[in-house]
Amino acid sequence: MRRLLSTAVAVALASGLSPAALADSVFVGHLVDYTGPTGFVGKTYGPGVKDAIDYVNAHGGIDGTMIELEQVDYAYKVPEAIATYKRWTSRNNMVAMQGWGTADTEALITFVAKDKIPVWSASYSGHLTDPTGKNPNTEKPAPYNFFYGPSYSDGCRAMVQWAADDAKEKGIEKPKFLHTGDNHPYPNAPKQACAEYAEELGFEVLPPVVVPMAPGDFKAQCLSIKDSGANYAFIGNLGGSVVSLLASCGTVGTDVTYMANIWGGDYKTIEASNAQNYIFPSASPFWGAEAPGMELVRKIYEEGSSDKSEKPTHHYIRGICSAFYMVEAMKWAKANGGITGENIKQGMYATADWVPEGLEGVCVPSTWTAEDHRGTTIVSVNRGSAVDGKAQIEQIATVELPRRDDWIGY
Amino acid sequence: MATTSLRPCGDFRTTYKADQYLLQTKWIGIWTFIAIGVLLLGPLVLDGYIISLLILIGIYGIAALGLNILVGMTGQISLGHAAFFGFGAFSSAWLNSTTGIPAILTIPLAGFMTTAIGMIFGIPAARIKGLYLAIATLASQFILQDFFARADWFSGGSSGSLADTVSLFGFAFDSDERYYYLVLFWTILSLVAVANMKRSRDGRALVAVRDHYLSAEIMGINLTKYRILAFGVSSFFAGLGGALFGHYLGYVSAEGFTILLSIQFLAMIIIGGLGSVMGTMLGAAFIVLLPQVMEALTSGMFAMFPETLATFSSGQAYIKEMSVGAAIILFLIFEPEGLAHRVKLIRQSWKLYPFSY
What pTM did the predictor assign? Predict the structure, then answer.
């Protein structure tokens, strides 16, 4: 026990090595997963946040206040996320946090609410959108959790809505829909909400097919999908698992339209799996698109320290949006009583339908209120195909979902 | 293997009973109470970060103790410990929210619920050994994980479940400083319980099963009973640790109880020392602190030599992860007996200096 204490003291001394806080600065923690199971998309999202904050610091900070960003790769390990969070709150006086996955975000819900530290996660679980616990389904209100983009449930609902229109066009009487994904909180998050909406729109909802999150040979699952007679299949996984599934189903030859979760669709996935007519949502334009705000995105990328060997995915751009919403809220906080967690949270509510300055046409106009943390319910629907090994992606629809009360936190 | 005892001259035992004391000498006893005293004063001087690390060490240490009973004492490999840990977390939250039993009581009750589940999964263990058992416990990991994701009534499915604040007679353990004492209480209780179990008749039976099952059976030890018992006791501590973890976070989600955590538990007991009670705590401390130390070291390095290391700056995360892996591998090569053994050697050399024996 004595040794345990002295080890703890040694750690305390070791962490004293971190760079001294800057003169006029606020501390923001940034959890990333580069080396863990969600590294496939973590490696493209995390640099977006970091480059954006570096850019803000290089151009005057928050009206003169610098953001001290510390990035920690927690490799999707919950204990490490908790310990790191505690270090940031007790040692660095953290005012806000950029989080990453379902695991760390959910483990920290209670702590961030108690410590009044707003978090922008890259987990878009529907149950993070209910800050007051209004919906009887909400297990736990998450008043300090924000994210940029549609929730997993809304993303899936948008896919279903697009599929309903698509089925009408194709003249399918009673289209069949099924959910695929690992039996795991992240792929399961939209499962029920999405199935209910699909039934509302006249789909026949088939039993879900379990596809592991670890990449493998999924021909058996593809045969199940094929035999079920599904017209539309939603893919709840991400990364290598999606690549394996699409490749296996390509081999089996299923006549199914695959629709993805926002993390399951990007040019890398399409190219790696040689996918055809793959439908996936997005909440920003893609790299190379023209929009007024893309000028700034390119500048951030060029000045940033991220790996330049591959072009960024739209997750990188969402990372920039996530960081910039936080920065704008900090600006508001600074003008309204100082940059504290509570003021930053109020800064998120200050305006309706807003886009961070300079990112017009990149981030979707979003609104957060003290009652409703669904920033946006507008979802872009895209179709991607691999042609000669290169992904060709076009936007085919924009779905605007109603802000239904029974959908909050669900 | 050096087994020189640490007794000063003239301190010899004449009965088996005296040879079995928990606190072997007066000084070990004194130091133990000093250590407990220091730990009790901890929250008054340490900051929140260290306190939370100590809480995590305590929680994981309790669960790892259970695994050590199974793997270290009884020689039955288990790859499903994280699932039992998770089961304890969900059980406590579920019991507390459905029956209204206060959380302070549901924590040990969750341990008993997990014991029951552990014994059910332990039934195949009565018949199989080694690799086969490893695969069977791996199955239990996946079966339980699947159960967490599906059983909405029990675990809240994909939205997780809420674990209330623990309170005792109106005193709420709602801050890290307060929760620390709850964890410390259970940690000390668990350590004493397992240390006592090791010197009991049943504990010796478990060791006999590990050392040679055939001889043990010939001596009259009921293998089936003791193998299932080991699973049950092991699951109890996993469930207890899990329940403490759940109430610490206030929110339980199936995301945290994957095979990764099972492997971390195994790493804790291997690094700490198989079959050693104190070693388990040292191993838990090692696994919890290592990433933190590596993080501090790598970021410290990058802060001190920014120019030299600029080319590696994007690789800091990888350097850290590789260092963590390397540290574990080096440990297994140079400290195969675990940290507990090293501590013993240090104590011996201290005692015997300047002579070698």
Answer: 0.84
